[in-house]
Amino acid sequence: MPHAQTNNSAHKASVAGTAKLLVLVLAFAWGLNWIAAALALPEVSPWSLRFAGAGIGAATLFAAAFLTGHSLKVPRGEHIHIMIAGFFNVAAFQILSAFAQLSGQTSRAIIITYSMPIWATVLGRIILGEKLGGIRLIAFALCVTGLSILIWPLFANGLPPTVFLSFGCAFSWAFATVYMKWMKTTVEPLANAAWQLLFGFLFIAAGTFIVDGGPKLWPLSTEALLAVLYVGIFGVGLAHFLWWSIVGRLPTVTASIGALLVPVVGVVASVIVLGERPTTPDIVGFVLIFFAAACVLLQPNVKHSEMPE
To answer: How many CB atoms lie within 10 A of CB 159?
Structure first.
């Protein structure tokens, strides 16, 4: 009996260790997703890029879920809520983020977008009546200070579109997260992610035909083609599958650290791969926003219900 208990403990430790490693891998997958998009955008319009990325990602996620026996069933009456969340969480987020990158530095777009946990907290107070405890008020103050330091110098040259587009990403992501909590949906997280991606893709597809007259994905250089494939297969499809398959097996704080690493990977990679040079206000703002997000995400009672990007 003691031997069986020892084997069971060893097995659990092995599974937890593997899950932690996968969270680290996922942080790189999502962080580098921004870089792949930046490499593709010079040759592919934002609409066509997101058409391909969301379409390939949704197909990859559905296929992975089907092959591993995960249920994709949606409780009766919840399709409409998933569709609404998919519009904000997938379609709006992906289109706004692509235009944000096209109009400014990728690193700056990442920094502003990942202020999302604070805006979700604020919306949670307004919509759900959740209390803003001391730690959340500190996080809000850090976030506002960081954003002010980052953004203020930019307004010297007018109204930078990338700032407003990035804020749009953060707010659409936050709204979708709070909306799903507000509607008290019971759909399984993996099924929720898969259907949100599918509905989001349909919205993007409609916009692509209206704006671009259809997806324009050829001819492309090898670099741009690989970037598009990376966004769809790894940055969207497989990354979401792995995240929702393992996040429930880890302590909340461990999963949250993985989520916090995404903007760090993205910003560092934008410097190394894209050659961007964040200014001092960018760096100070990023540090304050990062700590603000950490204050929210690293609380022991915080559960992941958002769709990470």
So the answer is: 8
Give tens-digit pLDDT for 175-206. Answer: 999 999 999 999 998 999 999 999 999 999 99
* pLDDT given for residue 219 in this prediction: 92
How distant, in Å, are the alpha carbons of 24, 163, 164 from that of 151? 30, 8, 10
pTM: 0.91
Distance CA 203, CA 71 (A): 24
Neighbours of 108 (CB within 10 A): 27
CA dist 82 to 78, 190, 197, 304, 306, Å? Answer: 6, 12, 9, 17, 13
> Whose structure tokens read 């579109």?
161
Listed in sequence order, the residues at least 6 apart from 97 whose beta carbon sits closer than 8 Å to its beta carbon are 34, 37, 109, 113, 165, 166, 169, 309
Would you place residue 4 in the very low, low, confident or very high pLDDT band (cuts 50, 70, 90)? low
CA distances from 245 to 111, 152, 222, 271 (A): 27, 41, 32, 31
